[in-house]
Amino acid sequence: MTSIEKKQYYLYGEKHIKKDDRLETGILDTTTLFIKIYEGTDESGKLIAEGTLYFPVPDLMKAVTGWNFHCMNYIACFLL
Fold this sequence. Notes:
Order of helices and strands: EEEHH
Helix content: 10-25%
Radius of gyration: 15 Å
């Protein structure tokens, strides 16, 4: 990300999706994104903020259309 002042920032986001029981769909887990923001262009920069973003279920599909996913395991790869 680049600020108005042309300063570079790196946003790291992580989702934890799990089914707590056999009847749960896991959809509520998809509405939560744990984030960290670093100065610079990668995670080696100074950590300047971290938090949790929540997306209402109807807005989730609008939000993910611009996201890029990196395969960390097979399950994540189907999102590419």
